[in-house]
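Give me the fold.
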Amino acid sequence: MALVRQSDDQVERFKTYVRSLNEQFARWIVQQWETKSDKFWSHGMVDYLRHAVIIKRDHPDAAAMLESNGKQERKHEAQLTILPVQHSKVVHFVRHGEGFHNIGIVNEDAHLTEAGWRQAEALNKHIQQLKPSIDVQVVIVSPLMRALETAAGAFGAGAFKGEGRPLMLSQTEDLDERAPHAAVACPEGIPFIAFEGCRERLGAAICDRRRDIACAEQQFPGVDFSHIERGEDMVYEQHKVESEHAVMERGARFLQWIMARPESRIAVVTHCGFIFLTLSAFGHECALSVQEEMHRGFDNCEMRTMVITDAAGGGRFNNTWFPGGRECLR
């Protein structure tokens, strides 16, 4: 009986949160209609969906019970989408491994701990064992040190043997700031591209302020930093927190940038806050189990694979296309 009462309390509390959110949203709708009837209201819609994701994330059992009327989660009818393959990308999202800031030691542009390096190497082993291979064509990585190191550990070609250009140079230990690690080799034919658009949410945490890009270029000669503005971090402002909506918009622009790229199989090594806010704008029409896969937070060095599609036709040429007909006989 106690468990039943506890479940009922959880559902009622969940309903209270939902009613409160809907009440605020309804008032906002009326206000928008009165003052901005000729404008799009996308900002408020995104904000509403973000809060809905957070409520469902914090009360998963109650959400499931409410949406299924106390029974098992209802089976959704198939929601199939068919698009030509060139309008889709397979994206492997990876959160960086454990950084010193994750264990309470906060430094500027935090490095991986020794455990963080082992996590990245464990992910590398997992990727190598996958059958069929995920066959990543490009690695997009945040320019912060912990993400760059994770990309090297997870997608690099192991210890550098002295031939060609290394992906990452060796580094010595700096107590409570940097773990030692050997140089890492570049995998053949896979470019690594640092991109500012997928860095962590900007805020007061000094660990999210990147170093002068020249330092990263020197340490990671196998990474392309041409998309990063030269010099010190001009984006970070210590006392200015990037709004959740701004991160979601940045995430949308980042996904559009990915869709415009020629590769179809992409790895993105980034940060928990950025991934959560970016993905939380999508998937609300899906079954609860699918929403859970998309909207729960990422653990250190966790990899989840998503398929991104663009029904507006933003893809590139499909090289698997065969014209058929008499044209193919010429």
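The radius of gyration is 23 Å.
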